C-alpha cells in the first residue's frame, strides 16, 4: 500500500488534492497496488470521488454527532466518502484511552484503521487495539530532506515487523525514492507512508510513479 498524507500543506489542498488523487489512482492501476490518499478534511469528498477505494481521513474523534463543535466524529468522514482513517500520527497524538475508544467506533462503522507509532515499544502497545495496519514512523525523520527511515533506521523496520507478525506494517518518515520503498518492503513492511517528498515536489506525479515502481518485484 502506498499512502500519501496531505497533512495541511497548501500544496496539497483544493485542486491539488484532486490531482494527487488522480495520480494515485493511475499509479495504483499501473503497478497493481493499493493507493491511499489522506486529504485535508475540506477535500475529502472530492478526493473520494476520484479515489473511492482509497480516501482516508487524517484523524477522527470518538465524540457523538451533535453538540461537538470543531470535533470530527467518524460518521462525518464516512459520509464524505472515507473508507479508512489514520490515527495517532506523531503530529496528532492521542492518549491510549482515547485511541481505544476511537478505534472501536471507527471499526463499528466499517472503516479501516491504521494506527501510527513512534517507536518499537509504541508499535507493540498499539497492536493491542488490533488495527488493520500499524504505521511506524520515527518522528525525528518526518519531512527529513536528506535521509529516510529506510536509510537511517533499517534495523528498526525489521524489529517492528518481527514483533508484530499478524498486522501489516507501513513505514514512513523521509521516504523519497524507489530505493526507500524497496528496502522497506525487503525488510518486511507492506506499506509506505509519504508526505513531503510528494506534496512539495515540482512534479508530484513523477515521485508517486517512482515510489509505486518500488512495489514491483
Ligand atoms: O504520514 C506520513 C508522514 O508523516 C511522512 O512525512 O514528509 O516524512 O514523508 P514525510
Automatic annotation (TrEMBL):
<keyword id="KW-0413">Isomerase</keyword>
<dbReference type="InterPro" id="IPR035990">
    <property type="entry name" value="TIM_sf"/>
</dbReference>
<dbReference type="Pfam" id="PF00121">
    <property type="entry name" value="TIM"/>
</dbReference>
<dbReference type="InterPro" id="IPR000652">
    <property type="entry name" value="Triosephosphate_isomerase"/>
</dbReference>
<dbReference type="InterPro" id="IPR013785">
    <property type="entry name" value="Aldolase_TIM"/>
</dbReference>
<dbReference type="GO" id="GO:0004807">
    <property type="term" value="F:triose-phosphate isomerase activity"/>
</dbReference>
<protein>
    <recommendedName>
        <fullName>Triose-phosphate isomerase</fullName>
    </recommendedName>
</protein>
